[in-house]
Amino acid sequence: MSLFGAISVSASGLAAQRSRAAAIAENLANSETTRTPEGGPYRRKDVVLQPENQSSPFSAIFQAELGPQATGVEVSEVIRESRSPIMKYDPGHPDAGADGYVALPNINPAEEMVDLMGASRAYQANAAAMSAVKDMLSKSIDLLRL
User: How many domains does the chain divide into?
Assistant: First the structure.
């Protein structure tokens, strides 16, 4: 794999983890949202990642030279979780039903924070890999000057 290919793989990982962290932050921000434009409580979002497909002719040739192991990653879709909401008895809430229960999002803040830590660590790992490749490129240029 070339050094530029390694940068491309790390860059795709950075973008994917940024999207994942944004979805997790949205989940945390809406953990008590009982009313959405679609109706009902907020539904948790989850980012699904897949190997990155090559779209341009140049990148397809570049990918063939790099080999199948250097594909990168991309966001394939953002899915809404289908778990049923948590029903909490609160007859004074404006969104309470006739029985006094309010439908709250089924979001566990502790689980979301663990997912956010994982996304953050994966982002840091990709940034460190990109920095190492940058250092290797810099050293290569310094050696060619001699």
Answer: 1
